[in-house]
Amino acid sequence: MQALKKDYYKYLCLEKYLVESHFSWLKLVLTGCMLNGEGNLEVGVRRYRVSVLYSPFFHDRIGRFDIIKIEDKSIRYDKKIHLYRDMSLCLYHPVVDKPPLNIIPLVRMIPWITEWCVHYEDWKKYGVWLGKEILH
User: Fold this and answer.
1) 123-136 burial string, b = 16+ CB within 10 Å, else e?
2) pLDDT, tens digit (0-9, with 9 covering 90-100), for 63-95
3) C-alpha distance from residue 13 to each of 9, 20, 36, 55 (Å)
4) CA-closest candidate to residue 87, choices 95, 99, 97, 75
5) What's the CA gap between 50 and 69, in Å, rounded?
6) What is the spatial distance between Cα 54 and Cα 92, in angstroms, rounded to a whole number?
7) CATH 3.10.110 is right for the domain spanning 2-126
């Protein structure tokens, strides 16, 4: 983890390149020691405004590199819809789903945002989270 923090600039530049190469809807800016991004994700007929913060320096404080949010005031906190109290998305189990070095690349997480949105819309209809989950 320390080596990644030491070379954070190279790591974040690579993440930025990979994300923007595969997901044109999300624009990232390297600000200080983190990636900061926003974009409009279309899922079905609905458009979601997504904000992303990503940095290896978040890990010591929150146990993960990512803070990904849907910017929509109509979405209210409910642990049943896989949100943290700060309204960031819970896209993976913080212990079970992490690889050995505790690093999940941002480019790997981006498709999970779409999955979260689909499951959220289903939850609104049926009152049950239909996606894969591990309660924690």
Assistant:
1) beeeeebeeeeeee
2) 899 999 999 999 999 888 999 999 999 999 877
3) 6, 11, 12, 11
4) 75
5) 6
6) 15
7) yes
Q: Per the structure block, which two tokens stand in for 97?
A: 């789903």
- Kindly report the backbone phi and psi dihedral angles of residue 63, in degrees, each rounded to the nearest multiple of 5, phi listed first: 80, 10
Q: Token match 């049926």: residue?
A: 126
Q: H-helix or E-strand containing 113?
A: helix 106-126
What confidence score (pLDDT) does residue 1 get? 67
Record the pTM: 0.93
pLDDT in tens, 28-61: 999 999 999 999 999 989 999 999 999 999 988 8
Among residues of the chain, what percentage have pLDDT more than 90? 74
Q: What residue ranges do the domains of the chain occupy?
A: 2-126
**Residue of 67, 62, 64 whose CA lies nearest to 52:** 67
Contact 22, 44 (CB under 8 A): no
